[in-house]
Amino acid sequence: MDIDQILKNFSEYKNKTALIKGEQAISYFELLERIAYWNDYIIKNNIKKGEVVALVGDFSTETIALFFTLLNHKCILVPLSNKTVEKKLQEYLIISQAESVFSVDNIDNVYFSKLQLSADHEFFSILKQKKHPGLIAFTSGSSGVPKAAVHDFDKLLAPFEKKRPALCMINFLLFDHLGGINTMLHILCFGGMLVVVEDRTPDKVCELIEKHKVEVLPTSPTFLNYLLLSKAYKRFDLSSLKALTYGAEPMPEKTLMELCRLFPDIKIKQTYGLIETGSFKIKSKSSDSLLIKIGDVNWRIVDNILQIRCDTSMIGYLNAHSPFTEDGYLITGDMVEVHGEYIKVIGRQSEQINIGGEKVFPQEVENLILKMDNVAEVTVFKEEHPLTGNILCAKVRLIDEKEDRKSFTWRLKQYCSQHLESYKVPIRVKLSKQEQCNVRFKKIRYGIEKL
Question: What is the mean pLDDT of residues 101-116?
């Protein structure tokens, strides 16, 4: 599979609807017309093959058309989302060495400018020599400077060689997220219909599912928890849904069990992928299980950390040391438990909290607290302490905010003490009315104490 083949497939689907945004429906034929327009445009504006081009926007007719046009021209594409770039655009452009940039606003106006940056990294030379398009994806940068992962885009297309059913799906994940790009390719490569979501609140998402008979919703555990809390599923007809897929962060056990209880006829499937590898095939043991089986890639566990070797792995980081071992395995940083032929991802090694020499996974404590009555969401984190080094803290959002803080704190500590070792019991409990997620609907861990 390559971009040229994808565009040929678009021709076969020309009378079908490719995407819906608001009240606007765009056919594959209309999408091809926009791709042809932008192809002429980049030639007239002397955008060269192998040029590093940033594309700032969110899923829309013009961003999708430019996405395929630039990659078909063998450019090295830097997809950036309007929702996450904010004041850091210049930083992303400098790190990626972007030589030009297209910006698409929320009503599909497109602005183009040339930049004075020089793209001279050796990874770009590798792509130019192969005459392959490239893609640069950024890590979140929540714990420091975002790392820029350079991919050979032809390799990222390998999983789409096998024909799949044409499905109607909401593209919930953002435009700069490899999961969001993977969803778009999954839909459009096989003649499906992409439903653009502009407002990611549970009610608006459920409204789109009902209106367009959406079959698959790929999202995050945090959003699914908000869906349950809002009870939006009761206000809309979700009978068209065949599958809910989730990834990007660990799923709380309570959330998964409640989803399975409420939606017994919907397949609930975990996905797994990394900025450094893209997505690859995994199999959930069952809808109500957090155990997964990894397929189609080589993997191993060293010191409880998952390592992966696959064809879709990045060439490397532009601005950080290589995370690969000498024999080509990516050190993922994900700590796992082994359960026979299945594994369970328990959290990021970097998120472990050291309490008096003991290691605490915040997800373990959070999963327990979520089982308490009146808890909407919780984030466990550390605070520095002059005597013990760190103390464990919990920031909790209640369902009924009328509950007294002191009585809830006592209740939480009593509950945790009955089920956890003493060093895992939060010393300090803070109540907050704010949702504890970012624009990606992923739990905020770094800086949560400031919210």
Answer: 95
Q: Which residues fall within 8 angstroms of residue 324, CB to CB, at 6 or more apart?
A: 313, 316, 330, 331
Contact between 140 and 131 under an 8 Å Cβ cutoff? The reply is no
The CATH number linked to 427 is 3.30.300.30
**All residues at 6 or more sequence positions from 380 whose CB lies less than 8 Å from its CB, including other chains:** 353, 360, 362, 363, 365, 366, 369, 392, 393, 394, 426
> How far apart (Å, rounded) are the C-alpha atoms in residues 343 and 77?
34
Domain boundary among 315, 349, 383: 349
Q: What is the extent of the structural domain holding 85?
A: 3-10+24-153
**CATH number of the domain enclosing 149:** 3.40.50.980
Give the distance, in angstroms, between the CA of residue 255 and the centroid of all CA atoms in the same chain: 19
Both structure tokens of 194 = 């992409």
CB 218 within 8 A of CB 170: yes
* Contact between residue 153 and residue 134 where contact means Cβ atoms under 8 Å apart: yes
Domain end call among 89, 119, 153: 153
Strand ranges, E, within 160-247: 168-171, 193-196, 216-219, 243-246
Distance of CA 2 to the CA centre of its chain: 23
What distance in Å separates the CA atoms of residue 133 and residue 112, rounded to the nearest whole number? Answer: 20
Q: CA torsion, points 97, 331, 424, 395, in degrees to nearest 10?
A: 20
DSSP line for 373-418: TTEEEEEEEEEEETTTEEEEEEEEEESSTTS-HHHHHHHHHHHHHH
pLDDT, tens digit (0-9, with 9 covering 90-100), for 257-307: 999 999 999 999 999 889 999 888 888 899 999 999 998 889 999 999 999
Model-level pTM? 0.92
Question: Does the pLDDT value for residue 126 go beyond 80?
Answer: yes
Q: How far apart are CA 325 and CA 309, in angstroms?
A: 10
